[in-house]
Specification:
alpha+beta; homodimer; two-stranded antiparallel ribbon; elongated; Arc Repressor Mutant, subunit A; six-stranded antiparallel beta sheet; DNA-binding
DNA sequence: GCCGATTTGTCCGTATGTATC
DNA sequence: CGATACATACGGACAAATCGG
């Protein structure tokens, strides 16, 4: 349930677009109209539209209107958009998923690690390796590092279940920003040991740093995906230089 | 040169962050302070800060302040962020780049193509294949489709030079939104023919649809990258459901 | 624990500029 | 030219979160 006004307007329009009540290439009602429909100020509808534009749902055109550019994607792919967990992703695609935790330890971040992960040297972290399977095929190897200070009392059982559930529901911590880098890399021995690589010899690798609501880095993760289970979707708007 | 006030404020703060005048993990001056510094309204500074947050430079915290979470990346990687052309990317990385155009034709989009590209069935498009080389190594195979109606008079020579220059400078068309999907795929015969694949047998594939300032789809591109020349960077903030 | 000062979040109304038709 | 539509900017009001005394 949206708590703010602009958010509920955003959602209402978003649903209408997804249901093609507002069709691809058509124009939204004008701001003036939307103000009356939702009984709010101009800033508020503009805020909602800005969110939709950031999502790639609409595009504003000066003096003309706001055009819908959303097209439903027919591919039954595993999309890793926004900040979404493996579990959510799998559930949405109706696959049976399991997680194994072959490695779970506490380590201290050294200089080399610090440079790679962004954690300060000397930080105590949980170092976890997790194998994610879909329909019993080991598809993803996750290498997680969580700050012990910010994510305390992590256990192997929690890692097997859902770390994000624990972080959000039990610790009440909010995940706000996530920086990601995607590359394609050759497999390592660890990959070969843990994953069902079929005859693939390369992996899609997503490394991410995640910040909590205090703006503190609490997670560094390297997620190594078998190529056939990997699809990343993205929308970019004009960037300010 | 920024034309709007919020944009110049955005840029000023952005530079200060990049120069570490505002350090990683430190707080920006309060909105109240920034209002006085830049002599503007609260909305205007908030707009600038919102842009910086969208870029992953800062993170706002209710009741506390705005924390800098930008870290300079030391990797000399080829980053394909925002909407950036191959040429810009190569230039930024100080490599010698060349483009060959082994295929250049006009075709009509059929039903199958339409579903894949988003162009309407029957649209007349330029179908172009381009091979991009860095320091004389063929690294990227681009398969472009441009609407002939929206991008008229395209020639092989322009394709060899820079299509984006032509679109922006000659046609005066503005590129606004770009939707992208990234996957990892096995190489095809065409890849093998055109690219220096070394001993790689897979490619990073970026497919993108690009919309102009009228909200019309004018380009569909599939960009096939050799894995060692591929790095994608991204920042995600909490998404509204 | 309370209270007040500070800081960010949401929302409103209005004015002016600029692009489109 | 005027009407319509989006873009930018200002100022003010109240809410909510944080922090220090």
């Amino acid at each position: 349930m949206p708590k703010s006004k602009f958010e509920s307007i955003y959602k209402d329009i978003k649903v209408k677009i997804e249901n093609e009540e507002y069709e691809y290439q058509s124009f939204l009602p004008s701001e003036h109209t939307l103000i009356e429909v939702y009984d709010c100020s101009r800033n508020t509808v503009r805020r909602a539209i800005a969110e939709l534009a950031a999502l790639g749902y609409v595009q504003s055109m000066h003096g003309k209107g706001v055009r819908v550019i959303y097209q439903p994607l027919d591919q039954a792919n595993f999309t890793i958009g926004g900040i979404e967990s493996f579990k959510e992703s799998a559930a949405r695609n109706k696959k049976k998923f399991t997680t194994d935790v072959p490695f779970f330890e506490e380590i201290v971040v050294d200089k080399r690690m610090s440079k790679k992960t962004g954690f300060e040297e000397g930080t105590l972290v949980y170092y976890i390796q997790r194998v994610r399977s879909l329909d019993d095929i080991a598809m993803i190897l996750d290498i997680n590092m969580f700050s012990k200070e910010l994510v305390p009392n992590l256990t192997k059982a929690i890692a097997k279940r859902s770390i994000y559930d624990y972080i959000e529901k039990t610790l009440g911590m909010q995940i706000v920003t996530s920086k990601r880098t995607m590359t394609v890399e050759r497999i390592t021995e660890a990959d070969e040991n843990y994953l069902d690589m079929d005859d693939y010899d390369m992996l899609a690798v997503v490394t991410s740093q995640t910040y909590n609501s205090d703006g503190l880095l609490f997670e560094y993760t390297q997620s190594r995906h078998r190529p056939d289970f990997f699809c990343f979707h993205d929308t970019a708007s004009r960037k300010l230089s």
